[in-house]
Structures are given as structure tokens and as C-alpha cells.
Amino acid sequence: MNYTIIVLFGGPSDERHVSVASAQNVVRALATSAKERPFAWFWAPNGAVHDVALDDLLTHERPFEVDFVPTRPAIFPNIEQALDTIPVEDPVFFLALHGTGGEDGPLQRMFESRGIPFTGSNSTTSEIAFDKERAKERVRGKLRIAESRVAQPNELRNVVSDMLSRHARVVAKPLAGGSSRGLFFLDRGDAVPQVDIPYIVEQFIAGRELTDGVVDMGDGPIALPVIEIETDPGRDFDYAGKYLGHGTREICPAQIPDALAREVQEAARIAHEALGCDGYSRSDFVGAADGVYYLETNTLPGLTRASLVPQELAAAGISFRDFLLRQTKLAVERRPPLHSVTILV
Question: Under CATH, what is the fold of the domain 123-143+207-299?
């Protein structure tokens, strides 16, 4: 392709550490070839954008725990100016972003309004999938879902109490967000934590924790091998378990009956298409006694060495580099015609 790949990472959310680790893995895979050697742009918490030396990014240690601090000064004061004055020809952005600001739609709209190709789903899909309740509404009638209610911060205690009147256990998690931050499992009698953002409270479904990625490698979306997440007694699949390896194991491919694996793969494909995802996604499920329950979909799932989609790609025999290059090619192919784009100034 005669396009320049720019890996955009960082962003304003508390999932910034995961984004840095994703960018390291993406850049490491792409930089093996001088032809596809990318640029790396760090979107700092203060909003400024830095052009990062690849060696600075790749040598940053403990990205899940230690903030990345670029050595070069910012080249743009904000992301809007960065996109309006891109200093390379024919850019395509690989979005190694996660969480609010990078995964929830507004950034995707900036790209769309400027006619700049980017990886991942469009702004509408990103916005809907990021809101766990809206995502569940999109798959309602197509997939099995657990009872849930949305609670504003001052409503959480009452909503949890109401849900626990019908269920022995519930799960409370941020309505919009990922990386298992702010996740609580609550039994009857437990203290309800104070929060300052909207939450979704779901009926806890006992069963096997399963997740599956869906990727488009050029011939339409295909489901990858399923992963099962096992946790030690008394542990939950939280941030420390997911990224620091505390008390969890990820089994890929999952050692589950073939019929269950096929059901999860079909459910992941249905979620991907019902939400209108582009390129790739990853959906989470519980395999319960009465079937597979849909939990949520990530439109920009982690691409770190510890992340689930790269493990599934390897199990499917798809090289990570081929996956990355295919995503950038798809992004260019679905770029809107310039004559139909309104350029913001």
C-alpha cells in the first residue's frame, strides 16, 4: 500500500497503560519491515500529541504499571490540530486506543469528518458498543442476555438492592469502559461501593468465562478459536488478573466441548454483525447450564502480548503482522470518497 501507517496510542482514559502496551506490540510487529515501518503518535493525558521515537516506545518497561513519558516535545497541542495538519502523505491510522475518548465514537467522528482512514469500527458502532446496555439492546432477540439495570451514581445502592431481591449475586461495572476496572461482585449483605460514574448492574450468571474474537481478513468476518478464563478461588478476572497474571489463566483454545465452542463462535459473529463492527472485535460470554449468555463487545480490544485476540490469532494460524496489515488495508478500502466528506476547519 502507498500509505503511511501512524499508530495512535495513549489517550485520555484510565486504560492508557493498556494502550501503550498495545502500541508496543503493534509497532514491534510492523517495524520488522522498513516498508511498513510506522510512525507512533502518543496522545498525552493533557491532550497534546507527540511524535514518538520507536525505540523510546519499545524500550518502555512495565507499561501496565508505569506511565509512558515521551522524550520528544509535543508536535501538536491537541488531537484536532494533529488531524488537520498531518505532516505525511496518505496516512492511515492504526488505533491502539482503549477506553473513553479513543474507543467510544468521538475520535472516530473526527477521522470520518476529515476523510482519514482508521482501523476499527465506525463512530456509530463504537458509541453503541461502548455503552453496555445499548449493546445488549442491539443483540436482544438474537442472543441470550442476563437481566440488567443502569444506575446513576446516586442510584447504585437502590438498584443493587432491587437486583439482589431477585438474584443471589450481581455484577456491577462501569456502563462505559473496559479492562475490568471498577468491577464489583456483590452478594446479599455486601457494602455497595461509592461511584461517580454510571454503572450497569447485571444478574450474575454462574458458568464458564468465555471470550471470542471476530476478524475480517478480507473475506468477511470469521470467528477465532475461543478462550476460556479460569480464576483461582476467591479471585475475579479484574485488571490485575487480566494484565498482571494474578490468579488467572487464559486457555487458548478453550478445552470445552465442540458444540459449546461453535455456539460461542456463532454468538461472537452475531454480536459483531448486529453491532455493525468493522475489522475486528471481541465479545465476552458466560457458558451457563442453560446456554451461552452475551456480556459485552469490545470494538478496540487489547492487542498487547498478554491480550486475548493475539492469542486467538496465533491459535488460528494467523500471524499478528498479517492481521495488522490487513486491518490497515481494510481501513483504506472503506475510506469515504473525498467529495462526500465535509472538512472541518
Answer: D-amino Acid Aminotransferase; Chain A, domain 1 (3.30.470)
List the alpha helices (DSSP H) in 31-78: 54-58
Peptide bond into 117 cis (omega under 30): no
pLDDT for 168-194, tens place per residue? Answer: 999 999 998 754 578 899 999 999 999
Query: pLDDT tens digits for 222-272?
Result: 999 999 999 876 655 555 555 555 568 999 999 999 999 999 999 999 999
Across the strands, what pairs with 249? 230
Q: What φ, ψ does residue 178 adopt, rounded to 5°?
A: -150, -160
Residue 207's alpha-carbon distances to 168, 213, 231, 261, in angstroms, are: 15, 19, 12, 14
**CATH architecture type of domain 4-120+327-340:** 3-Layer(aba) Sandwich (3.40)
- Fold of the 147-204 domain: Dna Ligase; domain 1 (3.30.1490)
Instruction: Find how far residue 50's CA is from the centre of its chain.
Output: 23
